[in-house]
Amino acid sequence: MPGEAIDRPNPAPKPSHLPDLVDQLLVKFEKTNLDHGASSALSKYRRAACYVAAAMIFLQDNVLLKRDIKVEDIKPRLLGHWGTCPGLILVYSHLNYLIKQKNLDMLYVVGPGHGAPALLASLWLEGSLGKFYPEYSKDKDGLHNLISTFSTSAGLPSHINAETPGAIHEGGELGYALSVSFGAVMDHPDLIVTCVVGDGEAESGPTATSWHAIKYLDPAESGAVLPILHLNGFKISERTIFGCMDNKELVCLFTGYGYQVRIVEDIDDIDNDMHSAFSWAIGEIHKIQKAARSGKPIFKPRWPMIILRTPKGWSGPKELHGQFIEGSFHSHQVPLPNAKNDDEERQALQKWLSSYKPEELFTDAGDIIDEIKFTIPTDDKKLGMRPEVYKGYIAPDLPDWRQFCVEKGDQFSAMKAIGKFIDQVFVQNKHSVRLFSPDELESNKLSDALQHTGRNFQWDEFSNAKGGRVIEVLSEHLCQGFLQGYTLTGRVGIFPSYESFLGIIHTMMVQYAKFAKPRKPPGEGMSAASTTSRPVPGPDRSTMASAIRTPRSLAQSST
Amino acid sequence: MPGEAIDRPNPAPKPSHLPDLVDQLLVKFEKTNLDHGASSALSKYRRAACYVAAAMIFLQDNVLLKRDIKVEDIKPRLLGHWGTCPGLILVYSHLNYLIKQKNLDMLYVVGPGHGAPALLASLWLEGSLGKFYPEYSKDKDGLHNLISTFSTSAGLPSHINAETPGAIHEGGELGYALSVSFGAVMDHPDLIVTCVVGDGEAESGPTATSWHAIKYLDPAESGAVLPILHLNGFKISERTIFGCMDNKELVCLFTGYGYQVRIVEDIDDIDNDMHSAFSWAIGEIHKIQKAARSGKPIFKPRWPMIILRTPKGWSGPKELHGQFIEGSFHSHQVPLPNAKNDDEERQALQKWLSSYKPEELFTDAGDIIDEIKFTIPTDDKKLGMRPEVYKGYIAPDLPDWRQFCVEKGDQFSAMKAIGKFIDQVFVQNKHSVRLFSPDELESNKLSDALQHTGRNFQWDEFSNAKGGRVIEVLSEHLCQGFLQGYTLTGRVGIFPSYESFLGIIHTMMVQYAKFAKPRKPPGEGMSAASTTSRPVPGPDRSTMASAIRTPRSLAQSST
Ligand SMILES: Cc1ncc(C[n+]2csc(CCOP(=O)(O)OP(=O)(O)O)c2C)c(N)n1
Ligand SMILES: Cc1ncc(C[n+]2csc(CCOP(=O)(O)OP(=O)(O)O)c2C)c(N)n1
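ok -> structure tokens follow
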């Protein structure tokens, strides 16, 4: 028995024993049809972006396929992840169209950050890449540079990182995309973050609890996250839990978390299915926000989410050496790993890349054709150029710390003094400072921070719709994810925790540190772990995150 | 607005907007009535155990309340967590009765390990504590020692640890109880682990994904976990997510995870409610196991789980200084923090402790009355004396490593050689070695380990019911939790992972290390991170856990 033998591509989940009544929980409506122009433009956008993404993984020359692919056209070392790219591009294309159509302010956060080719291709297509990096201009030379140097020491890396325009989340360690998205929309009432969560990533603990984050989002003061769970069925080498759950299991689970669930899976009519789902979701978000902002908040609002089923590596090679590629784990990374030296694989590559018909998509100058441009928003709305990601960090208005001093020789808890200081910081900064705590405010003697504000737990009738500055959720992963999203979009976050438990999120801190580099000394009056700025091209920008570590003795007596 | 003002004890969740049809998903049946003898004995057991647990937190003398409590009777420093104890004791009492009635092999794993008083009191009552620690004998002296020294340097600690009889899970960092429970039952077909998960703990990421663990449990070869989600509504200082979810939200969520959900919340008739739920759950477990073991496995079996709603600190003081205690976060730790120096609090303590009527529960010699003993199983079945926890580690039958060598000067991947070695280890140890991987077997070049076995993912038709030795789930937390449960019950686990991502679970490793101390050098032929034995009283016992770290370069190219 050599592992498992899967006898067909993209196997469907086997049915569960859940009763049929559960089907009534699924969000159902008739798809609306996009007009022909939009349909055609969207599908050409996707062909162009998929072409560029795939070419980035393989080609070092002949990047527009002006002739048959030769051995020398192929990179000596093939690196990059194809499998997730078609799904990420599908979403990107529809976000573009939606932003244009409805004039939205959006960010796009991608869990499977190893799908950098999808993002970089889209950013090149819309011109954001060229804006920050002149060498990737929207012409033949720029495209040649992008494709030929990708994943080499001379080019852009294989994972999304701080250098990726529009990005607030490092690719690498999976699990935090969703919590970071929620942090980013807090106190950004007009922002919608669309977050793609991979079905592999969704198995991680941090993601599993992040779905609850809607319970800490007050729609009167904050924006919205639109989660898309991307079921392409496979991770690196196995099927995924979520890919093996049937629609009944999925709708139960996410309804239980609090969502309305729409499943998008009509592969033959994907544009209409996707667009209808997006339109519905935006409508639901606006309803919830309107109610809260007109003083009639809905208690336990059912936020929308989308579950998207696509074959892994969709539109890539179907089979190789008798193995399925599309719709299998073989498309996770490089679907044709020996394309340089194996004739059969090189021919498969030729066939695959030419199937996108690049000659119909790019002009002679190497730009994309006007029809594709029709789907792309104006500069200020482009996913790669959002001010939330680049605008400078605005320092909080800090009180004079001396008023919190005690007389020399007096006995007073240092933590209590810090609590009083934080209280005053909240008073002076009503919408740009937050505190995230894993249920340790009281035991850390910081409860004076609640003197003029409350907790922000929307499912609790006693703190619902009160705009509290404090979130206390027993998940260090959620606290740190919220903090990252909040601070990387320009605000100030505080995360007090026991010394012994901060280690729980130390790898997240490392990812965060890679995304942001030390810059200024910490603010007055508190022990700030990092004051950081990002090396992203664009206007000056820095963020401040403070982690207050409490001493071991305190931690031990209060756990 | 000083935080939130909660105007009543034990507030109920506010209703969600989920449709009524969801109620049909709840498991419903008529409670059966325990006979009067059992009822009375169970409730006396609980009074006795709650009395001892509460006394442990406060008293240093007068431990059987033979006179009114004086200042000197109270410990100088009050340490311990009361809030969770009554719930833990309720479950303990019913497990005892169930084990006796149905002759079951059970372990009890407790998430809120800060509830050590509940466990230690129960272990004293059943005599397991006295068996391992003569100073805690079942008489006046033993009880005096237990109560008066608890949480002091001379006594047992405030958290469950390796010294607690029957324990396989360290109290402290919350989140892993459930995954450890699943690891313990793997390849232990007759074992049932009942696992209490706190509603605070349930907010953690590791717990949130652990509910999926049923999908990696083959009922033909492994035992069962019976999870009890304990909703006492509060954590250290805030309401909990799960406590604020109504029954509709809860049943949807856990039905989606794959469970059948029974809610136990009839506080006025709790014994009948609890016992009926347990009887039902054991019946469901046996049905699933019987089907699988008679060659007709149920695909996607719906394992039972119990949701238990009780007031936090149930049976403790109701109010103090105008604040609710029972049914509020004030009962989390020490409900009467100034009992030593405040007359009102000392009187409240007197009233509270005497409400259990210890004089009816203990004999003059300090043992418990016979009626209570009636509920306790025989020695070999007691929760504090299970052989799985104490029996010696049986070393695996290892192949000669030399046959996996390559000629000096040859080029061969070291990881591939290790994969071939592991394959042979599996062949020679069909039911006592497992490999847990966060979806990195293939990318770590270990897939030869699958030459004679498969993956054990029950929701996947291609690996269902095949007894595979490999679990690949994209959660380092699950892998490490499974490993801990599997190895701490005497078997061998392997956890290969990228160096950069092992840090995700480094605090778990620290907890594990506290539970187990280094003893022997690792086995031949692989790089074992720890070979460990536990300093638990009882027969010799050691376990082996191997973590294979893969080099950074490999990790980077394959993430
Ligand atoms: C925490 C963590 N563990 C393991 C890995 C290694 N890894 C990289 S990609 C991947 C599979 C991801 O699957 P999925 O999220 O479904 O993404 P997609 O299939 O869309 O590529 C894994 C396990 C990782 N990046 N992070
Ligand atoms: C990972 C982690 N974060 C924080 C803590 C600090 N802490 C100790 S007890 C507790 C509350 C636990 O609540 P719950 O699980 O509901 O237990 P119960 O209410 O039954 O005591 C917290 C936050 C911890 N022990 N572990």
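Confidence is low (pLDDT under 50) at residues 518-547, 549-559 of chain B.
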